[in-house]
Specification:
The protein is mostly helical. It has 7 helices and 2 strands; from the N terminus they run ααααββααα. Strand 1 (about 100) and strand 2 form a beta hairpin. The longest helix is centred in the last third of the chain and has 66 residues, at about 190-255.
Length: about 260
């Protein structure tokens, strides 16, 4: 009965760890549906036809690349969450306390290999640090700080690109207004034949400004939401690494260095 219960709980825990990936899929499915609706009503075609600067197309291409990069980092983080929970289960059930760093990776004292991932790498660093300092209290503050920096680097691209898209939107707005005002400077008289091309040029400039602004703001908001989900998953992974090492790893290594095991 206990084995059946554990088998049920394990897939449920893994499904929860892959929830960030599911959120990314649902969000981008909604974006795809919205784009299909806009295409159906001809708004996307109109945007490409009126945006002669092609800034909107550049924004969409950058958005697609960055969204895929976010998906990759989200999948990697979810996999490491699964590996960390499996490692915690192995450590908690180990018959003998202690850890060893081998050529294959990090193992418990009874020879069980921990699954590779962020947690296992961090435990390996702690084991090496304990061996090098030869006893005493093990302070993992610096290692945790370095780990936090490495994990945060996964989301830096997204935050930078989302801000860059907003700047591109402002650039497109400025270019659109410049193109809108240029025909006014060329007006020499106010008869109908002179005003008609001027008004046409003003309309085209306004269309560029509005299209680029809407595209830049919308894609930046979607990217910020995607990387917010990634940020939550990274924070959960960091908390899990800290919890496991503080509860299971650090006390075991300190006891081992004092000769109590």
């Amino acid at each position: 009965m206990a084995d059946v219960k554990g088998a049920v709980l394990a897939p449920a825990a893994e499904a929860r760890d892959f929830a960030p990936v599911l959120r990314w899929i649902l969000l981008n499915a909604m974006v795809a549906i919205a784009l299909l609706a806009l295409w159906h009503f001809g708004l996307v075609q109109a945007m490409f036809a009126t945006d002669h600067t092609r800034i909107s197309l550049i924004i969409l291409a950058i958005f697609a690349f960055t969204a895929l990069a976010c998906l990759y980092q989200t999948v990697v983080t979810s996999q490491e969450l699964v590996a960390a929970r499996k490692a915690r289960e192995i450590i908690a059930k180990a018959r003998m306390p202690g850890f060893r760093v081998t050529s294959e990776g990090v193992t418990t004292a009874d020879g069980q290999l921990l699954p590779p991932g962020t947690l296992t790498t961090h435990i390996g660093n702690l084991v090496i640090k304990a061996e090098k300092q030869n006893g005493g209290h093990i302070d993992q503050t610096l290692l945790l700080r370095a780990l936090a920096d490495r994990l945060r680097s996964r989301e830096k691209l997204g935050w930078f690109i989302s801000e860059a898209l907003l700047r591109l939107a402002l650039l497109g707005t400025a270019i659109g207004f410049i193109l809108m005002l240029l025909p006014i400077a060329q007006i020499t008289s106010f008869d109908a034949e002179t005003l008609r091309p001027a008004l046409t040029g003003m309309t085209g400039g306004m269309a560029i400004a509005l299209n680029v602004t809407v595209t830049g703001i919308a894609t930046a908001l979607v990217l910020k939401l995607e990387y917010y989900f990634l940020n939550k998953a990274i924070a959960e992974l960091f908390d899990l690494v800290t919890e496991i090492t503080e509860i299971y790893v650090i006390p075991t290594l300190e006891q081992g260095s004092n000769g109590e095991r």
